[in-house]
Amino acid sequence: MSTSGNGSAVEPNNGREVAKRVAFIAALVLVLGFYFVLLGRIAISLIASGSIPAALLGAGVLVLPLVGVWVVATSVRAAFAHQHLARRMHEEGRELDVSALPRRASGRIEKPAADELFEKVKLEFEADPDNWRSNYRAARAYDYAGDRTRAREMMKRAVDLERTERTGK
Fold first, then answer.
1. How far apart are the first and last CA of the chain?
2. N or C: which end of the chain has fewer CB atoms below 10 A?
3. Mean pLDDT to the nearest integer, 1-28
C-alpha cells in the first residue's frame, strides 16, 4: 500500500486512483515549471536592465526558480523511489497491514494503535537493521505514529539499501 498526503492507504492496484494522483502531480509540476520559466524571464530582464540594483534583484530572483527546480526534481525522484519500494513490498506481501487498526474521523490511525504497531515493527528492524525491507516497514510505522522526520530518514535509508541490493553497488 502507498499513502496519500493525509496518511490514508491507497491500494496500488487501484488504477483509477493512482492515475488521478499521477495526473494531479504532473499538473502541479507543469504549473511550477511555467512559474519557474516566468521567474527566470523576469530575472534575466532585470539583470539585462543595466541598473545595478535591478541586476542584483534579478540575480536574487534567478535563484528562486533554480532552487524550485532542484526541490521539484528531488521530490519527484524520491516519490518514484518510494513507490518502487512500495510496489516491491506489495508484491512480496510484506506491506504493513493497517486495515484493522482503529482510525480517527480524519482517517489517520489512532495514536495508541500506531504506537503499538511501531513497537512491533521496531523489533523487526532491530533484528535486521541492514535490510531495506525492515527499514521500509520502520519508515511506514514511523509515519503512522506521526514521526515524519524519522520516517523520511528511514525511507531514505531503505531506498539506499534497496538500490545497493539491486545494483550490487
1. 28
2. C
3. 66
Contact 98, 109 (CB under 8 A): yes
The contacts of residue 163 (CB under 8 Å, 6+ apart) are 81, 169
pTM of the model: 0.72
CA distances from 123 to 82, 99, 131 (A): 22, 21, 13
- Contact present, 123 and 132 (Cβ < 8 Å): no
Q: Any residues with CB less than 8 A from the CB of 101 and at least 6 apart, and which? A: 109, 110, 113, 114, 117
| Residue 107 cell numbers, joined | 482517517
Query: Cα–Cα distance between 18 and 1 in angstroms, integer?
Result: 11
Residues whose CB falls within 8 Å of the CB of residue 160, separated by 6 or more in sequence, listed in order: 132
> What confidence tens digit (pLDDT) does each residue in 73-118 have?
999 899 999 999 999 999 999 999 898 899 999 888 999 999 999 9
* Sequential DSSP letters for 93-126: T-S---TTS-B-TTSPBPHHHHHHHHHHHHHHHH
- The helix (run of H) or strand (run of E) holding residue 162 is helix 148-167
Q: Is the dihedral of CA 82, 85, 89, 90 positive or negative?
A: positive
